[in-house]
Structure formats: structure tokens, C-alpha cells
Amino acid sequence: MAARRTPSTRATINDVAARAGVSRGTVSRVLNSEVYVSEAARTAVEAAIHEVGYVRNAAARNLVTRRSQAVGLIVHEPHSLFLEDPNIGSILLGINSALSEADYQLVSLVIDSDRDIARVAEYLTGGFVDGVVIISARAGDPIGHVIAESGIPAAFVGHPIDIEGIPYVGIDNRSAARAITERLMATGRRRIGMIAAGLDRDSGQDRLAGFTEALGDRFDAELVVEVPLYSYGSGVDGMRVLLETRPDLDGVFAASDALAAGALDVLREAGRSVPADVGLVGFDDSAWAVRTQPPLSTVHQPAGALGRRAAELVLAQLRGEDVGLGGTFLDTAIVWRASA
Amino acid sequence: MAARRTPSTRATINDVAARAGVSRGTVSRVLNSEVYVSEAARTAVEAAIHEVGYVRNAAARNLVTRRSQAVGLIVHEPHSLFLEDPNIGSILLGINSALSEADYQLVSLVIDSDRDIARVAEYLTGGFVDGVVIISARAGDPIGHVIAESGIPAAFVGHPIDIEGIPYVGIDNRSAARAITERLMATGRRRIGMIAAGLDRDSGQDRLAGFTEALGDRFDAELVVEVPLYSYGSGVDGMRVLLETRPDLDGVFAASDALAAGALDVLREAGRSVPADVGLVGFDDSAWAVRTQPPLSTVHQPAGALGRRAAELVLAQLRGEDVGLGGTFLDTAIVWRASA
DNA sequence: TTGTATGCGTTATCAT
DNA sequence: ATGATAACGCATACAA
Known about the structure:
Number of strands of chain A: 12
Number of helices of chain A: 13
Oligomer: homodimer
Helix content of chain A: 40-55%
Structural class of chain A: alpha/beta
């Protein structure tokens, strides 16, 4: 068992070297498992490390190597969404898994106030991380610009409208939205509404565009309601408005499953049966989709794969590879359940 | 606008000093907003900083100050739970808010594999963080022991059974469980079952103990089913077993809202009306509780406050205060809705 | 109020 | 294969 040490006296390489009867250089070589070390030296050093309870000082190491072996994940969400968004967890796990394999530490930084913005910016530019993945950034996001200017290897999951010069990975929201809307139309619905959200990101705009495209001539602007968040509560609000302005609707495309869940409860309250009276479809294929009654027909989003891919984009840059600046788009699939 | 710099040539204090025509010491003093700096020097330095695009090197700074102004949050959860647990988000925001006010950066580290354990342990002991909050640690958790031995300022949210020497904050699970069970009994239920989970933490054990206590003589071990996770899926499984072994039950206490949601769907499938045939109560007062039909009667858990308090415990230690080793318990409240 | 000099704990370069 | 020694970029004690 390592000797109990007070926090004020941490063992250094010097201590280990003295104990093992070798030089600092040799200890360092053992630590970094370099080639030219004798078996005798190695075992002596390893024993000494254990005896003095040595742990490497990251700051000193980072200072000279100019690397931290860490990659940041920026999550910038309004409270409510962060708590509810079921994709974030999967994306995070996907990122972590890719980084872990490459022996990088993922550190997540949440931005929840203006104070946070400044502090996180310093953290990133200060060298605590070698790269960064940004998730769900919105238009006008200051952190995105800080990162773009700093030149630190980065990748977005999703693509904020106003930032260029950073590669991103996402899905083809427009095609997916068009596809599920067409599927909904194929069930015979004639007056289909949409609850649109997140119009400050291209994902939100594209879902609306796909919806519009699918409807073609039959598109009716009155049947579209805009809400601020991809949340259950916004779904409730949106559906109420829709039902008010167009009580004759017989189909709804909600821009997320959470919105659809909210809409579903409002429809139920209003005495509309789903899918008999109104066909309802969502987006994300999140945990929501299988918990509603009836379960939601929706678009499956490969959240874990999105995260993994973004992490790989950062890792590639860290290796000095040129990854280009365009977007990478992963496939979605329609999952048809009972809500339409 | 700052001059565009290649990543290979970052400006240092020397560059700023040269530009401003002062010494490194003065620049450093400006950077740390110390008292004895002339107005002239300050403005000159600030201009120079901007002109050369200087950003502080965190590694160098940490090396000499022996502090990082960062606090880690360890989240160690099986995949499914991490994605579903609605409390984690609130706890995280509570922690972040407290740390942010004290100008500390919260960095979240998720443990999702054995590789992660070793890497995170190195990250923590290496000095990347000054303190750490551990959430939902389980018995036998290696990270908990690493932290305990390292002597790094720490606090648990919840309390793993086998770790001493680290302060923790939680709720009185036993009293809360007893209270809601008694409330359920007061509705006239005679054969109340429990879906218990997380028995490798004291929270899980205490909820079971509270349930047992409330029932007193009427306790029947056959009416308790143990499931591994606090998840919807486990709720489904648990309720199936319960319905199989004791089809005559008329009340259920699920150890979490997610479990209750799963149980509710099974009851519905089985043709049991809630609350008419079976009274159902949950635990957590999470988002689940208000989304089920009917909404759940449950125990409100002050998740945000728990996180904030844990962060404050770490901050106090960072200030050199003695916070003791005991637990801090925050109040819960019963929220009675329509499921019982 | 400011400048100078030293050291933080590593890695890396050079001898040997 | 190993040992000395010089950075890395900053804060700080001390001198001025």
C-alpha cells in the first residue's frame, strides 16, 4: 500500500528517481513506456513509483508536450431542453466511446449563463483541451465563434447557421421531414399541420422546408405554428394554437417526439382520437416515441453514431489530417408505429 | 481585431511585455488584477494583449499555482439509466450554478467502460481538477476509492455503502418511502407491493426499509420484487412478476417514477384500472410523473438543491474549511396526484 | 510602482 | 541504455 501522503507533499519524479537510484530521465522513459530502458531499471522504477505513491502532474506534462489528451464537449441548451432532450445522452456516449478508444478524455462543459460563456471560452483557449465537439449550438452563439477564431480542432453535431470553417455532422433533416410527411399524406390526410421549432438552427429550418416541399400545392401557411423549444410543453402550446385556428385538421407533423407527446395529450383532451381522427408523427425516435399511447410514428435519428462521427472528425484533425469543412450526413429511417 | 495566429505560435507574456514596453511581472500583475499597477501600465498592457492576441496558458499557470479552478463531476451509470434518469440533469445544473458563482469550471466526466475508469482516475489525480463531485456511485466503485485515497476535496450526491471519509448530501429515503407508503395505505389498500431497485446503494436499501417499516405487521415479502435498474423497462419487468405472483394486489410502491411508468403500462395491459383497481405511487417527482396517464403521486426530490449543496461542500473544502464527514439531508415532500 | 530572478514538474536534447 | 541540462509559460518573492 502506498504511503499516506498529505496533499502538500506530492511525490515528484525526483523522489522516484532517488528511490530507484536512477535519473529523472530514466523515470520519465519508464512512465512513457519508451523503448530504451533496461529491465532492471524498469522494475526498480515501477517499485519506487508505488512506494512513494507517485502520480504524474498533468500541468507540468501539458506545459512541455503542449497537449492535454482531453477533448471538450460543449452543451449549450436552455435548462428545460437539456433536461428533456433524449438525444444528448446518446450523442455523448457515442463521443465518449470514440475518444476513449483513442485514449482521450472527454470533458463536458455545460453553458447555462453568460458567466459560463466567458469561463468556458477561457477554459478552451487556455489549453485544457486539445479539441472540442459542439452540440446544438444556435445562431449567434459566442462560443462557436471563439472556437472558430481560436483554430482549435473542432466539430459540430448539427450546424449553426452562421458559422463557417468548422466541419459538422448531422442528418438530412429536409429529406427526412419530407419523407415522413409524404408517408402521413399517404394515409389519406388532407389537412396536415406542423408544429415547428428551433428555427434558429438549420435543423429546424430544414424540417419545415421538407414539410413544405412534401405538401407542394397543398401547403397552407395557416397550418404551421412555430414554437420556441423542442419540448413537451411547447408541443402542448403549439397544438392548442393549431386546434384553435384550424379545428378541421386531420394530420400533424411535430418537429420532435417531445413536441408530439405534448400535442398528443392536447388532442386527447380535445376529444380527438389518434390516429382515427388525427394522424400524428414525430421526429427523433427518442424514448418518448415508445412511451406514448399510441406509440409514435417518427424518424429514427442515429444519435450515438452522430456523436461518434463528430469525435472522429476531431481526432482526425488532432492527427493532422485534413477533414475538409463540409458536412457529413448520416442516414435516418422512418419508424412507423400506431400514431398515424 | 486580434492578429490571426497560427496554432504553432501562440503569444506569451513575453510578447505582451515587449509590445507594451513593460516587464513580464507587470503583465502578470495586470492579468491577475493586482493592486499595484499604474493606470498607464494597465492600459498599455491591455492594448498589447489585444494586439498580439494573447491568451493565458493554463498548464503553465496551474503548474505554478497548483490549482486549476476546475471541479470534476463523475457520472457513473449504465447506459440506459444515464439516458433516462431525469434527476441527473437537474443535479448537474445545480452543481454548475454553485461552481459558476465561485468562478470554478465544472467538467463532467462520464464513466462508461473499464478503460474510462483508469483514464478518469488519472485525470483526477493528475491535477486537472481541484475537487470532485461524485454522483450515483455504486458499491464497489473503484473511482470512489481512488478519490478517497487521493485526498482530493470531494462530495457525494447520494452515499455509496462502502466508502467512508467523504461527505455526502442526499435525502432521507427511508422516511420518505415510509411516508408515501403510509399515504397509500390510507387510501384503503390492503395488499401493497413494491418494485425495489438499486439495492447496491443506500438509497435503494432505505426505500425498501421505509416501505417495510410502514407496513409493519402487514409486510409480506412475496409482495416485493427486486429489479436491477431504476428504469422504465425494469418497471415493466417488475410489474409483470408482481402480477404473476400476486394477482390480488391493490397497491404498488415503485422505487422511482420511471419504474412506476413501466408498471402503469403493464397494469393497463392487464386490464387493471389505476387508481380504481390498483393505487400506484412513484418516487422522484421527475418529468415522468406528470406525463403518465394518470399523473403519478410521488415523492418530490430536490435535485437541483442536492447538486448545489454538494458543490458547496467541495468549495468549502477548497477554502480550507472543515466540513465534517457526515451526511447532509435535504427535505422531500409528497406530491399527491391521480395515480393513487 | 516596477523589474529581476527563481522555481513549479515534466519532457526532450544531447552527451556519454 | 542512461544521466545531465535546457526549455515549457507563468507567478511570485525580493530588490530597487
